[in-house]
Amino acid sequence: MKKVLGLVPVFWFALVLSLGACANKSSDAKEQSESAKSSPAAETPSARAYMQLQKEVTELQKAAATQQQMLDVMNQTAEKLKGFIGAYPASDEAKDAKLQLAMVYSAVGKFDQAATYLEEFIRGGDENDERVGYAHFYLAESYKNLDRYQDAQKEYGIFVDKYSQLSPQYLASAQAAMGDLPALKQLSVGGDPIPFSVKDTRGKTLSLDKYRGKVVLLDFWATWCMPCKVEMPNVIRIHKKFNKKGFEIIGISLDSDGQALEKFVKANGIEWPQYFDGKGWQNDVAGKYRVRSIPATYLIDKKGKIRYRSLRGAELERAVELLLSES
Question: Are residues 224 and 311 in the same domain?
Fold first, then answer.
């Protein structure tokens, strides 16, 4: 298996994992970041330009002081990568830029765009390149978020069969995801959410049945999850805008520190109920929904049917407004 680290890390993990979906693969990020330190010096114009691009992105990330600024970094990074691909389309670095761009799109929840670039990267890649192995994994993740479960099963299978030696953590995640797919099919758009009845942090009963006739966002998140925190101001704004019109949110916290959750909720003026059991990734409700990464959301209509999954930003606002307009 060729590492083909070249002039950049396998992924720009410092950026992608700090802002992308939070999953239990942190040790891999450290390993990849350490391996990137041995990258050789740039020799060609495209390589020098790519090194400069990576430095610019790193500086942008360091300068981001707020959650919104961090989201802006992601959008700027996407534009810079697209510009580089346009300027050096035939270069080896452009191939890697497509992979980085796919990761950025995945991080901000644009899974259709992520899948497009991952498919292109795989088609033009060398199957002995470890980046192709990781691309298969993340393509499976994108397909899963797009409810393309048969395609996700195929891509996870390729990773397990051909690239299992790359990472024990990614292998375990792929195998777990393959086991989750049958249950996730039941949670597809148009299906029924899995019922639950628990006590929220205020001691009140929390269940989906209580919200029948309303539009409900079921939000799996945590205070330690950076993309969750980046998206939270948008969720708060949408809740304030539509709450009196029949929009509700149920928060399912994967925190293990109750005080951290209480402090964050109070500091940010989060008004909707939260379920917290202190079990982190083993959260009881998250287990029912096979949640392996966060943020994970389900938008449920007035009739109690799942209508959207994994929406963020303006897409979430438009979907909420549309569902509220339905009779």
Answer: yes
Does 191 fall in a domain? no
3-state secondary structure the chain: CECCCCCCCCCCHHHHHHHCCEECCHHHHHHHHHHHCCCCCCCCHHHHHHHHHHHHHHHHHHHCCCHHHHHHHHHHHHHHHHHHHHHCCCCHHHHHHHHHHHHHHHHCCCHHHHHHHHHHHHHCCCCCEHHHHHHHHHHHHHHHHCCCHHHHHHHHHHHHHHCHHHCHHHHHHHHHHHHHHHHHHHCCCCCCCCCCEEECCCCCEEEHHHHCCCEEEEEEECCCCHHHHHHHHHHHHHHHHHHHHCEEEEEEECCCCHHHHHHHHHHHCCCCCEECCCCHHHCHHHHHCCCCEECEEEEECCCCCEEEECCCHHHHHHHHHHHHHCC
pTM metric for this prediction: 0.72
Instruction: Please report whether residue 82 resides in a domain.
Output: yes
Q: What is the pLDDT of residues 63-93, one digit of tens each?
A: 888 777 888 888 899 999 999 999 999 999 9
288 and 201 in a common domain: yes
Q: How many domains does the chain have?
A: 2
Q: What is the CATH number of the domain that holds 312?
A: 3.40.30.10
Start-to-end Cα distance in the chain: 56
Considering the domain architecture, whether residues 208 and 176 belong to the same structural domain is answered as no
Query: What is the pLDDT, as a whole number, of residue 136?
Result: 96
Within-domain flag for 8: no
Mean pLDDT of the chain, nearest integer: 87
- Domain with 321, as residue range(s), is 197-325
Same domain, 34 and 141: yes
